[in-house]
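Example A, followed by Example B.
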Amino acid sequence: HLTLAFGAGEITLSAGSDKKLVTGTATYNVPDFKPEVKVDGEDVRIEQGDYQVNGFATFEGMKNEWDLKLGTLPMDLEINTGAYKGDFDFGGLSLTSLSINDGASEVDVDFSSQNKEKMSLLSYKTGASNVSLKNLANANFVSLVFESGAGNYTLDFGGTFQRDGSVTVRSGMSNLTLVIPEGVAATVRVSSGLSNVQVPSGWSQHGETYTQEGSGPALTIVVEMGAGNVQISR
C-alpha cells in the first residue's frame, strides 16, 4: 500500500522504477517542504513536510515539485493532495485499487497501456477543478466512482475493456464529457433536472437513459449532477 500526501505544487507520476515500489526526486526551495518517508510493514507513506504560513506570507516564488516513478509490484495506491497540478500516467502498472483525493487542481490522468491487475475500485474525489481521465478502459476497473464540485471534467473510456465496468459520477454545477468509443456496449443514465445532455448519432434515448449498442464487456454509467452540461462523444 503506497500513500502519497502532497500539498501545493506540481507532481508527476509514471511507471519506470527499477525498484519494487517507487523512486524519484523532490525539488523544493522551502526546507519545510522536504518530504518524509514512513514505512510500516507493507505500508509506505511519502508525505510533504509541514509548512506553516506566518503573518502575510504567501506561496509566491515557492517551488515544490515531485517526479516519481512507480514499480510494477501489485499495489493499492492512494494520493491525497491540496491545490496542485498533476500529470499521472499509470500505464503498465499493477494497481489493485486507486484512490485520488484533491482540492482545486489541474490534473491529467492517463492509462496509456493496460493495468496488469484487476482494479477493484478507482475512486476520484475533487473540489472545483479541471480533470481529465484518459484510456480508462485500460485501468481494468470493476467500479469507478468520480465525485466533484464545480469544474470541467473529461472521462475518456478509450483503451481495451477486460471486464464489465460500473461508473458513478456525482458532480455539482459542471461540464462533464464522457468519451465512449463506437462499438462499446454502454448505458448512461443522467439524473438531473437542470442539465443539458448531448449524445452522438447512433445512440438511443429512453427518458433519462441513453444507450449504445455494442459487443464485449458492458459499460454502465450513472450521472448525478446538480446542474451543467453532459456531453457524450466518441
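Example B, a separate protein, is given below in the same form.
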Amino acid sequence: MARPSQAKENLIKAASDLIWESSYGSTSVDDICERACVRKGSFYHFFESKAHLAIATIDNTWAKRLPVLNEIFSPLVPPLERFNRYSCAMLEYQEERRSLTGHVCGCPLSSLGSEVGTQDELIRSKIAEIFAHHLRFYESAIRDAATEGFIDGTEPAFKARTIQTYIQGAFTQARVLNDLTPIRLLDRAILAILGVDPDRVSAST
C-alpha cells in the first residue's frame, strides 16, 4: 500500500491526467482512485470533494510550470524571443501529451474553466488567477519590446489580453480538430498581433 504522502500524490496525478485527457464531468472519484491505485476512503481523507482535488491538481501543475515560465520570460531574454521560447515550450508540451494519449489535449485550464466555470466558483477563480499571472508575463515582454524599439508601445495591456485570447483559442481549436497546427503557428500569430513581420524576425536571427 502506498504511504499517505504517495497516495495523495497519486490522486493528484491521476486526476490531472484523467480530467485533461477527457473532462471533469466524465471523470468520477472512482475513476481517479482506480487510476491512482488508492482506496476511495483514502480519497476523502485527503480531499473534501472532487472540486477540491481539482484545485490541488491546478496548484500542483502551476508550481511546476511557474519556474519554467519565469525562465522563459526572464528580463535577460530578448522580449520577442520570450514569445518564441514560450510557443516552442507549449508545442513540446502538447506533443508529449499527444504521444501519451493519442490525441491533442489542448490547455487543461481552458478546458476545465470552460466546462465548470459557471458552476464552481472555487475552480473558476483559481484558473482566473493563473490566467492573470500569464497576462503579466505577456505584458512585461510587450513593454520591454516597445522600450527596445521593436514594436509600437501603445496599449500593452490590451495587446497582452489579445495574445492570451488567441493562445487559448488556438489550444481549444487544436483539441477540437485533434491537430497541432494552431499551436505550431503560435509564434507567428503572436508576432502578427504585435505588428511584427515574422519573416523579418526570422531573417534577423
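On Example B: Residues 53 and 112 are 13 Å apart (CA to CA).
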